[in-house]
Amino acid sequence: MSAPVLEVEDLRVRLRTPRGPADVVNGLSYSVGAGETVAVVGESGSGKSVSVLALLGLLPQGVATVTGRALLQGEDLLTMQPERLRQVRGPGAGMVFQDPMTSLNPVLTIGRQLVEGIRAHTDLDKAAARRRAADLLGEVGLPDPAGTLDRYPHELSGGMRQRVIIAIALSNSPALLIADEATTALDVTVQAQIIDLVEGLQAERGMGVVWITHDLGVVAGIADRVLVMYGGRCVEDGTVDDVLENPSHPYTRGLLGALPDLAQPAVDGVVPDLATVPGVPPAPTDLPKGCVFWPRCPVRGDARCETEQPPLAIIGSSDVALPHRAATWCTESPARAGSTAVSGTFGTGSPGTSGIESPRGRLR
Ligand code: SF4
């Protein structure tokens, strides 16, 4: 494997809130290689977006306390001076957010926004930066790149605006692209186009990509590796095949089990209810003692579940470059038992419909 572009070690984020300190990210560690895509998945509030905002120094000052290490091409983002961090954002790491309309300034033309970003990190003059901006718009597949430079964000569709955001993120040839729910606000067809676009650009440029999403369909389509977050912690990680074919943590199994099964036949014209993960994620101001998932876990049974946080431990072979790991005390997971069945113990409105084989099949 190539040298990591990004190495995150024991990242912790604590926010000051009116309800007291909120431990939003609790000891996150992962790395991203050149040309590799790591998907970070989890429900809203799991800490996945805060974790990347913390890396780039984008959390409000005085509210967030960030500790750990985050080496971007060998330089620690968390100890950088603000001026250096500003220089690194762009050539080091580009970011694409969920809502392209709020990421763009509505009163500036697309050209002005692109040209400003390019000139902030290069010594190109205005005319050369404008030519570079038009080239970038062409690269991200926008028709009439030169004409688009003179248009305002509201004159473009959502998919076109997201292409502009990707062009801005790529304008300084970053080594790392962070996409935070980058396709969530788009319809399914445009989502697929944006994913194809990022994959194509990644193959050309060899960027590392961190893709933050709650959408397991996106994960199946784009990721090399997956990191599942819950309560600010990584509860399972591994290659995309390991995690989607042999989910080991009860939470991952619950997420996969909650996907609609399009192959499931209707019974007497009634489509079976979806399985759910009952309960709600814990408040970061009041995380449970022990395993962070225990209040919702349908298979808790180990005496340590409610008292000791399980470590992220290797499952199966440790003799591989990227071992499959999960943080759970339970030993009867499908992966450990050598089966691909998803646990049938999560809630479902239709008894008898909860056990499924090959969960990844639902994502194709
Ligand atoms: S440690 Fe216990 S409560 Fe936590 S996921 Fe495993 S079985 Fe469930």
UniProtKB/TrEMBL annotation:
SUPFAM superfamilies membership: P-loop containing nucleoside triphosphate hydrolases
Q: Where is the ABC transporter domain?
A: 6-256
Query: Out of the domains of life, which is the source?
Result: Bacteria
Output the CDD domains linked to this UniProt entry: ABC_NikE_OppD_transporters
Annotated region described as Disordered, given as residue ranges: 337-364
Q: Does the keyword Cell membrane apply?
A: yes
Q: Which GO terms describe its biological process?
A: peptide transport
Q: Give a single Pfam family match.
A: ABC_tran
- Spell out the GO cellular component terms annotated for this protein, sorted alphabetically and separated by semicolons: plasma membrane
* Name used for this protein in its record: Peptide/nickel transport system ATP-binding protein
Organism field: Blastococcus aurantiacus
